[in-house]
Specification:
Largest sheet: 5 strands, antiparallel
CATH topology of one domain: Enolase-like, domain 1
Order of helices and strands: EHEHEEEHHHHHHEEHEEEEEEEHH
CATH class of one domain: Alpha Beta
Structural class: alpha+beta
Oligomer: single chain
Radius of gyration: 18 Å
CATH superfamily of one domain: CO dehydrogenase flavoprotein, C-terminal domain
Number of strands: 14
Strand order of the largest sheet: 4-5-10-6-7
CATH architecture of one domain: 2-Layer Sandwich
Strand content: 15-25%
Low-confidence stretches: none
Distance between the termini: 50 Å
Number of helices: 11
Shape: globular
Length: about 260
């Protein structure tokens, strides 16, 4: 039996103090962490449960952006009237995550902090050019994702919220694993104030990434046909029992065209 100390702070300041131990882990939704603990891949000395911190929850419209608290559940995002009105693609994406239990327990902050290569939220964060707000600073999406399960977060740094700019057009399409509903490939396309962005999850060996060739083509003309001849190289893509790298490369173009049609 694995032993650990369970703590449930009521404020962000108390959470940072509790999580200061070298082997402590923050518990957000627990959909990934608890599974790795069961497999003995993670053996924290302390579990710091963030569910009791009210300041980490909630959805706010702030100017031309939607700011979502780190402890906001996936189900809350997909049901939010504000998200549906401002960024319907984000609400739709949240509704495709896992099953009902996962959507009612999993959190935005937990997903973004874990940065699983097949999770959905990183595609929206990168695709919309979001800002990750932490207890120390603000991190642009392009500087946040560093690799497989790696982010720009430093020890002792906690995600407070994520701010998503409202795009003029956006959509997300994914080809999901039938059992886990993780994305074999997921593509998020968006027309933003800073330009066109195309983000891919589920395919890259290093996690979520942008497709510059598609972005350049769409900047000249926003349509599914603009990307139909763009072939993403299979080099650097995941190849496993679910799909080969070549098949994932093919799916990126297919899903990008579907997303553009939906947008």
């Amino acid at each position: 039996m694995q032993t650990f100390t369970y703590q449930r702070p009521s404020s962000t300041a108390d959470a940072l103090k509790a999580g200061a131990k070298t082997d402590a882990k923050y518990l957000a939704g627990g959909q990934s962490l608890l599974a790795t603990m069961k497999l003995r891949l993670s053996t924290p000395s302390d579990l710091v449960d963030l569910s009791g911190i009210a300041e980490l929850r909630g959805i706010k419209v702030e100017g031309n952006a939607i700011t979502i608290g780190a402890m906001t559940r996936h189900a809350e995002v997909t049901q939010s009237a504000d998200v549906k009105a401002k960024i319907p693609a984000l609400a739709a994406l949240a509704g495709t995550i896992g099953d009902r239990q996962v959507r009612n327990m999993g959190t935005l902050g937990g997903s973004v902090a874990n940065n699983d290569p097949s999770s959905d939220y990183p595609a929206a964060v990168l695709g919309l050019g979001a800002t990750i707000n932490t207890t120390k600073r603000k991190i642009d999406a392009d500087q946040y994702f560093k690799g497989l399960f790696e982010t720009a977060l430093e020890p002792g740094e906690l995600i407070v919220s994520v701010s998503f700019p409202v795009p003029s057009k956006a959509a997300y399409q994914k080809f999901k694993n039938a059992a886990s509903r993780f994305a074999l490939v997921g593509v998020f396309v968006a027309q933003t104030g800073s330009g066109v962005r195309v983000a891919v999850t589920g395919a890259g060996q290093s996690g979520v990434f942008r497709v510059k060739a598609m972005e350049e083509a769409l900047a000249k003309g926003w349509s599914p046909d603009a990307v139909k001849s763009i072939a993403v190289p299979a080099t650097g893509l995941i190849s496993d029992l679910h799909a080969s790298a070549e098949y994932r490369a093919h799916l990126i173009t297919v899903l990008a065209r579907r997303a553009l049609g939906a947008a």
